[in-house]
Amino acid sequence: MNITIFGSGYVGLVTAACFAEVGNHVVCVDVDARKVATLQSGKCPFYEPGLDGLLTSGIEAGRLRFTTDAADAVRHGTYQLIAVGTPPGEDGSADLQYVLQVARTIAAHLDDYRVIINKSTVPVGTADKVRSAVSEVLAQRGVSQDYDVVSNPEFLKEGAAVGDFRKPDRIIVGADTDRPAELMRSLYEPFNRNHDRVLLMDVRSAELTKYAANAMLATKISFMNEVANIAERVGADVELVRRGMGSDPRIGFHFIYPGCGYGGSCFPKDVKALAHLARETGFAPRLLDSVEAVNHDQKRFLHAKMRAHFGSLAGRTIALWGLAFKPNTDDMREAPSRELMEAIWADGGAVRAYDPVAMEETRKIYGDRPDLTLVESAEEACEGADALALVTEWKPFQSPNFELIASLLKEKVLFDGRNLYNPETLRDLGFRHYAIGRAARVAV
Ligand code: UDX
């Protein structure tokens, strides 16, 4: 099958590489000529396990190519996927300008039946806007041409995106008629062999499913962070509470890990966008606003503990382990590490940071500044620092040599933003261990 994908970002590239892998011919269009050249040489502009290899093999097999030529791209694919960004506006609403621009571009070159597939995360009603944008351009051209618009939201997790695409939990297809629905079934056939994972629904329900799923996951996290804050005050250990709660299959163990807040390109943006969408209909979304507010405060948790411990952070240096918003990615969007570093700097403190892959990304964001030292190893971050803070639970941070760490730090203080470490072990080594909601265990 011939597939065209607009937007060579995260979703676009993973989708392109995985469709090419199963034998399709995929063309990716991007307006950024430099990015297109980099991709055509087989280099992925961000870190995602397994993606580099898939891109290279797709290109070498002649099944994947990158272009800035929209006319060529619209001619190529029966399937025209839109996978461009929908950044949040000031009021939390999703900015649809890039999605609608792609819709107009497709319409400008449309001269045969095409199914236009919206993969970007968009508010309910976007498919209608895409349809209007396409019709308008076709009318200006004086052309009458059949096409369909479907919603096909993406549920990839960064760091595990290739696996998620190859083995999806579900393939949501929002289509209002049979023809595009059947075409979508054929498109996903290779990923739908053993169990039928296609859930066919109307377009609006598909659009809402994506927002609702992300908002539900974010809600679970904020709920647990609230429980952790209560646990701390009543002298309980949230890690025991979590296990006790999770063993009820109606609750489950996934996404109930308390921490220093959720980040990333999806949860913060989608919770706000869903709340905004609700308000636009005249409905006040009380739960969604609270999910966001709890997360906002949780991202300040470690900083509050640091202030309480040191009194003032002026002149203090904090060793920071983990910069990416979660392990296995170099994505720093809405990362809790950023809030923490910025708060330390605002107090006159400094940071020595290490992350297995997000150092370059951090350099791009903050440049050279005297209060940020990016170092080559987790141990080096601790050299001469007043305390250690763990923000991202990367595997290499899971079993450190605490005796060595203790000898490198000025004070044996550890702020554990992901409840990664055993409070008893640290206590035996003489550490002051601040964790999330573990008052019962971390007290010295
Ligand atoms: C998420 C959704 O999982 C995915 O389905 C959707 O397509 C995009 O958004 P992603 O942003 O890649 O994926 O990361 P995810 O693994 O879901 O983690 C999001 C954030 O929640 C991270 O900051 C993580 O640290 C945090 N988190 C996750 C917790 O704090 N506790 C948990 O129990 C789980």
UniProtKB/TrEMBL annotation:
Gene Ontology MF terms: oxidoreductase activity
Listed pathway(s): Nucleotide-sugar biosynthesis; UDP-alpha-D-glucuronate biosynthesis; UDP-alpha-D-glucuronate from UDP-alpha-D-glucose: step 1/1
Protein name (record): UDP-glucose 6-dehydrogenase
Enzyme Commission no: 1.1.1.22
Keyword hit for Lipoprotein: no
Domain of life: Bacteria
Similarity field: Belongs to the UDP-glucose/GDP-mannose dehydrogenase family.
